[in-house]
Amino acid sequence: MISSVLRRPLEVTYLLVLRDFRGRYKHTRVGMLWSVINPLLFLFIFYFVFSEVLAVKTPRYASFAFVGILSWSWLQNSLTSAASSISGNPGLVSQPGFPVGTLPVVSTSTALLNLLLSAPVLAAILLFEGARPGLALAALPLVLAINFVLILGLAYLVAAVNVAFRDVEHILPIILQLGYYVTPIFYSTDRIPARYHWVFQFNPMAHMIEAYRDILLDDRWPAPGSLLGAGIAGALLLGAGIAYFRRARFRFLEEI
Questions:
Q1: What does pLDDT average to in each consecutive run of 10 residues of the chain (256 residues)?
Q2: Which residue in 125, 129, 156, 228 has its CB near the most CB atoms, within 10 A?
Q3: Which positions, given as ranges, span the membrane (predicted)?
């Protein structure tokens, strides 16, 4: 009985992830290549501006920037999709017995799948610039899991809040754009003045990006304190997000 109850949300999540992933590229010319083209365009711009024009002396800058771009793209795509996951699917939400709680999971998982499509390109850039990931790669699944929990917690909050306050869909891109610049995506934390370091200490995504760079660029195990802090932040966000989502879900049908 328990296994059948658990199996249904998993099956629904799997089917919806496939639907969203296929639908995203259904009527495009190059299909899934758009998931790689988009971050590559940002990489070319950042590389030209910061490596060629401003001559920022960051080793392996293409790899450095691409890791940050992909990490932030996962967050950005997840939350953008989650914002409309409830309000944009009244047909699914109104179905009796439909596991509404799977929709934010679908948004986060689909964005992760898009991220994984860029992994071969990232690997090629790393090898080209001389990075040689080694034993530290064993920590990568843990970092991805912590990152998933962190993003999923935010996705639950955004999905539920947007049902009652549709302004979220308009405010969210602005917040994400501002977050892009206060997160060390295209610059190193070493260049941040000491008086502003506290801002980045309270930014979980900054710790996530640093952990990815430690593993992929320097073959170094991420700092345990940073991972622990990000893990605690992710667990708290997920708990708060699910709790708020469960309270708000009884009003979903009335408000969509």
A1: 52 83 66 73 81 73 92 95 90 86 94 91 92 91 97 96 88 92 86 79 91 95 92 95 92 77
A2: 156
A3: 31-50, 106-128, 135-159, 226-245
